[in-house]
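Lab notebook, entry 442. We have the chain sequence and a SMILES string for flavin-adenine dinucleotide, and the next step in the workflow is to get a structural model of the bound complex before anyone spends time on docking refinements. Request logged below.

Task: model protein plus flavin-adenine dinucleotide, output structure tokens.
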Amino acid sequence: MRAVGAATEQRHCDIAVIGGGPAGSTAAALLAERGFRVALFEKSRHPRFHIGESLLPANLPLFERLGVADEVRAIGMQKWGAEFVSPWHDWASRLRFADAWGTSQPFAYQVRRSQFDEILFRNAARRGAQALEGCRVREVKFLAAAGAELQVQHEAGGEERWRARFVVDASGRDTFLGSRLQAKQRNPRHNSAAIYAHFRDAQRHEGSCAGDISIFWFEHGWFWFIPLADGATSVGAVVWPYYLRSRAKPVNEFLMDTIALCPALAARLAGAERVSDAEATGNYSYACDRTHGPGYLLLGDAYTFIDPVFSTGVMLAMHSAFIGVEAIDACLRRPAEAPRALARFDRQMRRGPRDFSWFIYRVTNPTMQSLFMTPRNYLRMRDALMALLAGDVFGRRPFRASLLIFKAVFYLSSLAHLGRTIRAWRRRRENIRDHPAANASA
Ligand SMILES: Cc1cc2nc3c(=O)[nH]c(=O)nc-3n(C[C@H](O)[C@H](O)[C@H](O)COP(=O)(O)OP(=O)(O)OC[C@H]3O[C@@H](n4cnc5c(N)ncnc54)[C@H](O)[C@@H]3O)c2cc1C
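Result returned:
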């Protein structure tokens, strides 16, 4: 990387990408391949920690198209499905991607994000993007004529000015443009917080289930248990904000106390040792009111994030890059086609979060828990559910009718247990209320 001194120097690129996570690195690689001059700015240095380690089968074709499938295979733990464990049922339920409607991808991977994100970032550089680490974008000024000027700060202290024809915001939960344009809004229908750490020597399942994600419900929310290829296990609790606010102890102790509230998980961690400090994150459920504007697009978490429960974040981030690149190509090379391309981008950006959110909002509902604990395949309801959970939301979706039947069964079953349904609805309404203290990172 070149040394930077004077603040007056101006550099040029076609496209400036803010953020070298899955969305930004994917977009930068694809745009560079199309012959654009791309500058990819990442404020940290890879490898760096990031939460979000469980991927979906729908990620695999994206790896192939990016040319990183072998590298991801080398660091990944195969994940063939998900196990659900509930304190209100005395069995565990196992759902397999192999059952998904029309599947050609029966497994996914669990990955250490430090390794995974580095693979994608280096791939962008290999494909011709200028991949700059330790470079934080401080300001973006959109120019009346077209394009934008960016002010970039290097970790060594120097500053640079860049001129770009187009800006891609892939800054994740920093929501660089969304925040500055006041386009970011708290999700009024969801509110949760997370606390997590890595463990060594957690008890894994035998055979092909060894890499499956386990979801444990408990009184205050649910836990993930994600086995990684190097023997570590990522464990996190996703809880209602009131529970995180009740913390009166250091985060490490609080996490261990929380695990003790879930005996089935505690049993799998009985001989395990925590090998990282626990981290806590306040409410992270939000969306921007737009996916793009003149001269820019928002990708991945820079546009929206709802909840980690179905491991959709990385897939949606990478997919947003694939569709975003088509729209940018139209904007810069075929302006007459730009309005249609942007409208298509907008539709697809909203579709994924919308399709998953119906399930996300109900995941702690007792009726939904029963449906997951006793999955039935009447009229291929289970196969349709698994197609959705595998991330198959952007294609033809021949399973839509069966998914509607699943939803109808949910509503009928909720009616059949009206008292329980009303109690759950009241509790949820109280829990998702905005409490400012819950919205800060702990
Ligand atoms: C508790 C929790 C658990 C999760 N678990 C999962 C999971 O199991 N599976 C899953 O798929 N998803 C999960 N997610 C979601 C997942 O982490 C994100 O959806 C995913 O990382 C989004 O990718 P991205 O590229 O949009 O953003 P990010 O991965 O956040 O990347 C953004 C990058 O931008 C950089 N950046 C930010 N601001 C600037 C700036 N001004 N200048 C330069 N660089 C900047 C950041 O350093 C970062 O590297 C989870 C999220 C949470 C909160």
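Notes for the group: Residues 56 and 312 are 7 Å apart (CA to CA). Worth checking against the assay data. Confidence is low (pLDDT under 50) at residues 1-6, 437-442.
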